[in-house]
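Bumping with the actual sequence this time:
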Amino acid sequence: MKGDFHIHTYYSDGVFSPEKIVDLAVEAGLEVIALTDHDNVLSYNVAQNYINSKNLNIKLIPGIEVNTLYKDYEVHILGYFPDATKSDFKAMLKNQQQARIKQTKEILRLLAKKEGIKIDFEDVKDMVAEGGSIGRPHIAKAITNVGGTSNVMEAYSKYIHKDSPVYIERKTVSPFDAVEVIYDSGGIPVIAHPYDIDIAEKLIKELMNCGLRGIEAYHRKHSPAIVEYFSSMAENLGLIVTGGSDFHAPNIMNGQIILGKNFIPEWIYEGLIKEKKNIDMAQE
């Protein structure tokens, strides 16, 4: 089935509603999608209710992208089919949300104190849907909105990095804990866009001890050679291959719902379904 298994909505740092994403996916001829917002799963029910109400012919996979830190690396862990009612899973998301709020408020405090850039926390919070995940893109946009910088990229280069005097690192979950919690919830943990991590192979092997089951080989940042590299790694390690556009907004920098050269093979969906059955059997 033609699918896209890495898409963001305005419940995190995407610009569109879940309903709009569904419409775009249908227009693009996709048959199955996964909404993978950062650190929350709120978009799933909204999108599924919309699909049901409109009787649309598209499948929806429950998904998430958990932001984690390991040493100096930011590691993103995708999860497919997690049981969001599991206590450990809910606790992880609660902690992630609290860490996001604490980080944002502290950065806003330092921006006002050290740079004279005054931003109301509610103005940042209002950039995401109710209960959604606020983060660095929203802070950068807020800085630009009040005239602190001329554009979002300038806000990142001046303020949203670890060497900035106003930046505070988020106290977030480790990739090992994220993988374990997703797996224990019946989900499929997958490392996202591993090309971003120069210790990817070593880390992937270590994460397998906690339940890692897949590698996102297909991604808009991955050249054909990189796709082949991580696909071969997955095969050698007995992991599944996944992929997605990592869509946030309709521009060339942020990926497209219409995948074009970022084509996701139709067999990826079957691999996800098969792996979900394997995990369910193993946890019976």
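The tokens above came from a reply further down the thread. The chain has two domains: 3-92+172-282, 93-159.
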